[in-house]
Design goal:
Layout: E1 13-17, H1 18-21, H2 26-37, E2 41-47, H3 53-59, E3 64-67, H4 70-73, H5 77-92, E4 96-99, H6 105-113, E5 118-119, H7 130-139, H8 150-159, E6 168-173, E7 178-183, H9 185-193, H10 198-204, H11 213-227, E8 231-237, E9 240-252, E10 255-264, H12 271-287, E11 290-295, E12 300-306, H13 318-325, E13 344-345, E14 349-350
Parallel strand pairs: 1-2, 2-3, 3-4, 4-5
Antiparallel strand pairs: 6-7, 6-10, 8-9, 9-10, 11-12, 13-14
């Protein structure tokens, strides 16, 4: 029938109830394996309604679990903790999640905050014929997700984790514009403490030249895209030293899914250390165009402060590569010292040698 009507496999999925799997039927397991081999997703319905849920996840391979609506019916702190743990465990196993029984804005907001990928329930509408469903969607001013973006948002939901650290997801276009897909409370609070709102960040990082951070941000995005790892940079904002860490999670149709964390490191340093760091770094910034953290053991150069552009390449080419690749002014003898004056030593403290050129 699927071939006859040219229906793509991804348009169909097979739902199996937990009660069926708890019978430990060999025939059911064989059928599941065969369906998955043929490219169909297996969804486990009513997860958590029985007494062998964890054993089922251990013994069977499924693509998505549907949390039983009973978890939300009694919406207590205990049930919220259980839901969070189940969703976190499912992500660790590479399983997508859907919550049934969503009836209130509180339900929807909580599930979104912990990264539950999909929701269903009377909050979004009651079951009805297709024409009524489409009319209800239009009446509620809700959009319909295009099928081609389904996997993109599935990946996004898998990245979201419950954490006390700042966490945000950007949908970044390769042409240099971006928008938030997700932010947690810690991210919003830290951002407001710096004097910004989410729309400020979207604007500052989407308009080239609006702020100096724009160049840093997109340079590090390109680095992460090439390295397939988390990359970082530092900048100063109204006297605050801010560390930004980001990772390009996924790329699709000229869109980049970018996970971002940031920390105001000025707040995380004890008062005495902060005063010393503040005085020393401000002095350096007043006399040098480039200040970098140099790791001799790892052979890397990471920019701490840059005027007019990014220096280094996240450890590539590194200290030696950077030195040997630097342009030499014509008519001047080559510097005999391969590493000009060390400005800061993590153990010995800060020092500046004015007799030598800065790196």
């Amino acid at each position: 029938m699927r071939r006859k009507y040219a229906v793509p496999r991804e348009f169909l999925h097979v739902e199996i109830t937990e009660s069926v799997l708890s019978r430990d039927s060999r025939a059911v397991q064989q059928a599941i394996n065969r369906l998955r081999q043929e490219g169909y997703e297996i969804w486990l319905d009513d997860f958590g309604s029985g007494y062998s849920s964890l054993n089922i996840l251990k013994d069977y391979t499924v693509d998505l679990i549907k949390l039983d609506m009973g978890f939300l019916r009694s919406f207590t702190e205990k049930s919220r903790s259980i839901i969070s743990s189940v969703i976190g465990m499912a992500k660790d196993l590479g399983i997508k999640t859907l919550a049934e029984g969503v009836e209130t804005q509180e339900h929807a907001d909580f599930l979104a905050s912990i990264g539950c990928g999909r929701q269903q329930g009377y909050f979004y509408g009651s079951p009805r014929p297709l024409a009524g469903t489409l009319a209800h969607i239009e009446e509620e001013r809700r959009g319909i997700e295009q099928r081609k973006w389904c996997h993109y948002y599935d990946v996004a939901s898998m990245v979201i984790r419950q954490t006390d650290r700042t966490s945000a997801l950007f949908d970044a276009l390769e042409n240099g514009r971006l928008r938030f897909l997700y932010t947690n409370r810690a991210y919003r609070e830290q951002l407001q403490a710096l004097g910004y709102w989410l729309q400020d960040v979207e604007e500052n990082l989407s308009i080239k030249g609006k702020t100096e951070v724009y160049d840093f941000f997109w340079e590090v995005i390109n680095r992460s895209r090439q390295s397939h790892k988390e990359e970082a940079f530092y900048y100063i904002d109204s006297g605050n030293y801010v560390n930004v860490r980001l990772r390009v999670v996924y790329a699709m149709n000229h869109h980049l899914l970018v996970h971002v964390e940031f920390q105001n490191i000025s707040r995380s340093i004890e008062s005495l250390q902060q005063g010393k760091l503040d005085d020393n770094l401000r002095y350096l910034y007043s006399i040098f165009e480039h200040v970098c953290i140099v790791d001799f053991q790892q052979d890397t150069i990471d920019p701490l402060y840059v005027q007019g552009g990014m220096m280094g390449n996240g450890g590539k080419p590194g200290i030696r590569g950077h030195h040997h690749g630097a342009a030499q002014p014509p008519g001047l003898p080559r510097r005999p010292d391969p590493l000009p004056g060390v400005l800061y030593d993590g153990q010995a403290g800060l020092r500046v040698d004015p007799a030598r050129e800065p790196l």
